[in-house]
Amino acid sequence: MRRQQRMVSSEHSLHFSAVFTQLPLPPKKFYLSEEEVTEIIEEPGNSEAILKRHIQLFNIHVEELNEDGTIRYCEACMCIRPDRAHHCSECNTCVLRRDHHCAVMNSCIHQDNTKAYLLHLFYGSLYTSLAFISDFKFTYFDIPEDRGHFWFAGSFAYFTCMQLSTWLWIIYVCLIPRNLMLRDKWNRSCPYGNLGWRGNLRRIFGSNPFLWLIPTRGIYEYKED
């Protein structure tokens, strides 16, 4: 019982850490000035040249482009998107290394809360596994038969949550070393910001492997001075 209580407390802290971590926005130099935005609106055919001029002016490094080879520009945020950044319609902003918008967390999973989210899945799978085993024993061996079938609902709920969290955790463990996210194509590694499988793991979980299962911060790019 005490072990389950500790796991629940850990789950709550990881959940809040993933939810309330501030969204990492693109650095200021990626945002266009009002004059540049006006130029793009008035001369949409010349937008690519305007974006390239801005990139050269502020010495911005971007590798990820649109499928047609053009610069990734967000009209809603009026900024050039850094590599791996995407616009979230729910959060109404561009988010660095955005994976997806989690309905359970009611927040984007991004570069600064990916570790908390993954640990939430990991410890959640452990907790639901332990709860399922305990509830299964109670349901099938300890309660009288005349209690009805309602008691089986708890076992089924724990088993379902255990399967979801475990398989999602396994998917992420396979994707992160290849520098991939859920939104990427899984048949190849992502070349943008790829540090190799060791570097990709350290970027998410931190440089010290002994702290990978503890909710510490990772190491990321695009941090403003």
Automatic annotation (TrEMBL):
The keyword Acyltransferase applies. The chain crosses the membrane at residues 117-136, 156-175. Its EC number is 2.3.1.225. GO terms for cellular component: endoplasmic reticulum; Golgi apparatus; membrane. GO terms for biological process: protein targeting to membrane. It is a multi-pass membrane protein. GO terms for molecular function: protein-cysteine S-palmitoyltransferase activity. InterPro entries: Palmitoyltrfase_DHHC (IPR001594), PFA4/ZDH16/20/ERF2-like (IPR039859). Residues 71-176 form the Palmitoyltransferase DHHC domain. The keyword rRNA-binding does not apply. Keywords: Acyltransferase, Membrane, Transferase, Transmembrane, Transmembrane helix. It comes from the Eukaryota. It is an enzyme of class 2 (transferase). It catalyses: L-cysteinyl-[protein] + hexadecanoyl-CoA = S-hexadecanoyl-L-cysteinyl-[protein] + CoA. Its main location: membrane. It is found in: Membrane. The DHHC domain is required for palmitoyltransferase activity. Belongs to the DHHC palmitoyltransferase family. PFA5 subfamily. This is Palmitoyltransferase.
